[in-house]
Specification:
Blueprint: H1 2-60, H2 63-74
């Protein structure tokens, strides 16, 4: 009879321990799932920002934008064709 009481007590503790383990595991899974959703949302936001930055970069490197920046910020002008000096490579006769 004493052995049966001990067996029932042991089984009860085992069942309760398993229940607590299941509850803890489900809670941990929920917390990890919430974290996953936050990270996926952040990833999506970063992807949108990356695409916008790529679009901005592509518009900033066009010839027109570069020319406008050179004119406004650096006061550069396109020279008249007569003012352009072309330099050609000169071969050395000394060997």
């Amino acid at each position: 009879m004493k052995n049966q009481v001990l067996l029932v007590a042991l089984l009860t503790v085992t069942v309760l321990g398993s229940g607590v383990g299941v509850v803890y595991t489900q809670h941990a899974n929920r917390q990890l799932f919430i974290e996953l959703q936050k990270l996926q949302a952040k990833r999506d936001d970063l992807e949108v920002e990356w695409e916008l930055l790529q679009l901005e970069q592509s518009t900033l490197v066009t010839d027109a934008v570069i020319e406008q920046t050179a004119r406004l910020r650096l006061n550069m002008l396109i020279p008249d064709p007569g003012e352009v000096l072309y330099v050609t490579p000169h071969e050395s006769n000394a060997r």
